[in-house]
Amino acid sequence: MSAKYGHILDYALRGLYRRRARNLSLILIYAAVTGFFASVILFSDALRREARETLQFAPALTVQKLAGGRLVPQTTGFGDSLSAIRGVRAVQPRIWGYYYDSPTGSVFTLMAAPGGTSDPAFHPDSGQIVCGRGFMESHFLRTGDPLSLVLPQGGLRTFVISGQFEPVTNLLSYDLLLLHPAEARVMLGLAEYEVTDFALDIPNPAETDAIGLKISRRFPGYRLISRDQVLLTYEALFSRRGGLVIFGGLLSLLAFIVLAWDRASGLSREERRELGILKGVGWGSGDVLLLKFFEALTIAVLSSLLGLLAALIHVFYLGGTLLKSLLSGWSVLYPDYPLNYNPDSGSLLLILTISVLPYLVATLIPAWQGAVTDPAEIMQAG
Amino acid sequence: MFSTMSNNPIRPLHYFFSSLTILSLVIPALLSDASRQGNQAEVNRFKQTLARELQITDLVLTTESRHLRHISQPELMAVFQDVPGFHDHFPGSAFFNVYPVGSPDSAHVR
Description:
By secondary structure, chain A is an alpha+beta fold. Chain A has 14 helices and 13 strands.
């Protein structure tokens, strides 16, 4: 019995080999579609994991002041009112904003090193600056070079580049410029007593919502962002319902439908003739169906595996260039970040299921119609 | 009927199984290589230290606009935030389609 299957598979492969130019082009197009779909899934999975692993250290609660719907600076004294709330272990003022760099036309994120940092690498002294790779590369700078930034009130201030962030942290630091707090205030046009927002350290995560409620009742006009909210935002962004998967996946799903439709819309005249002859020489309907099934399976499995291979190379070796450009949009500075990979069997299974099953089903419907038709009728029609 | 077919010296069956074997060896090799690249545990620790020390809230996925650079810190009237009338029509925005997740106080206040 198994020898029979082997022979039918052999015959199916010979048939595919006979029409190799057509089948090879089909495999390549099919692999490209699978590759794009797999890239979207692998890329969004990798980013979701990166967000989960790094942003778990985001502030438990960020307190921002809004006036007329816009973020406005707060006074440092407000931090004392926040630290008096029970359950808050520490209040860390944050000073940050944006710096428009006219030579490149890009916008960088300017931050002050927080006071409590233990690592001297994240603590530039007065007159020093630590730059992200994006700034260093776009200005062809090296550590130790002088760097002049334009002050908001006009004029220049010169810093010495005391260090640069490692490329492995690009996803967090690519566009960062880290300054001493006093100088960051000058660069952002803040007064000595002003900060951008406050980060609250809350040791018991279960208390975050209650503390948030207390702050919003006691100090209306403040906007609160919790760590859970940040994590959920990124989880939503790269989930199966997120924009990247919806739009990126939709494109490839449409392409899958076109491919499957082409197969489901019927057999070619040559294929029908072949089926007629096979039935005429004594093949059963089951054998003919099995033949078509093996043909479709061969194409689907080879194309899907090739597509998966292409997606792995694209996302983890070529840095997901195609998809990064979707996220970058009109950015002047294109963030470049390496992605970690941890195999997720669920995603691999999803990719293979979506790429193999619809094609198999779409092929078997016309094959079944052909298989149950009288051979004489097929041959006369052909 | 079937026995005559295997006399043909060209055996596509061999090609098929060879390519299948090659693909099924290359893919797991790539997977394990990708997961080992640059000692992930150490890289993660490095990133986590940076995120903790600088209290970072967002990933640098794009520098297209303020609300995409810091997607978790939007301003309430974000669409008007760059210049008057400059609506949120950045091409990247479509791919940052996030459903609202609520704020820590919203559930109680409403």
